[in-house]
TrEMBL record:
Main location: Golgi
Annotated family: Belongs to the chondroitin N-acetylgalactosaminyltransferase family.
Membrane topology: Single-pass type II membrane protein
Name of the protein in question: Hexosyltransferase
Species whose genome carries this gene: Brachionus calyciflorus
């Protein structure tokens, strides 16, 4: 995760003790092989649908006061590893008396990384992991162009 100064200010402004929890919608980069970006500074200046996507269904990044976090019971210890633990916590916060600020934040960029959807997880976790893995390869436009070029580059007219 990379962030800029503006995102830190938004985090501070949108986290209020006993009142407000900040769950930003972060921009998640596609596989570096497809976006061909190397400089971190480029990410903030070129957010577009070929670079990545907004993680509307991601709840892993949030800002909450520790006292509020403790009051709602913290992380559920039943979850092992990646998958669904963030949404379960989000659901408990949503059901509490705390308000949630949820909006896109251009200053929070999730860097691409490979991850493994191993079989030791629950079926819901595996499904969620596979969906995330598929979603982070490249944009539909880039994948379509790649397939199109592979198919038609071998044809002769």
């Amino acid at each position: 995760m990379i962030f800029n100064r503006d995102s830190l200010n938004r985090i501070r402004m949108n986290t209020i003790k006993s009142q407000l929890v900040y769950f930003p919608i972060i921009f998640s980069l596609y596989d570096n092989f497809f976006i061909n970006q190397t400089k971190h500074n480029d990410y903030f200046n070129s957010i577009n649908s070929d670079m990545g996507y907004w993680r509307h269904f991601g709840y892993g990044m949030f800002s909450i006061y520790k006292s509020d976090f403790d009051r709602i019971g913290g992380f559920n210890k039943k979850f092992i590893g990646w998958g669904q633990e963030d949404y379960e916590l989000f659901s408990r916060i949503k059901a509490s008396n705390l308000s949630i600020m949820r909006t896109t934040d251009q200053g929070l960029v999730h860097l691409f990384h490979k991850f493994d959807c191993d079989s030791s997880k629950t079926s819901i976790q595996i499904t969620s992991c596979r969906k995330s893995k598929a979603r982070t390869v490249a944009s539909q436009r880039v994948l379509t162009n790649l397939i199109y070029s592979k198919i038609y580059s071998n044809l002769t007219f």
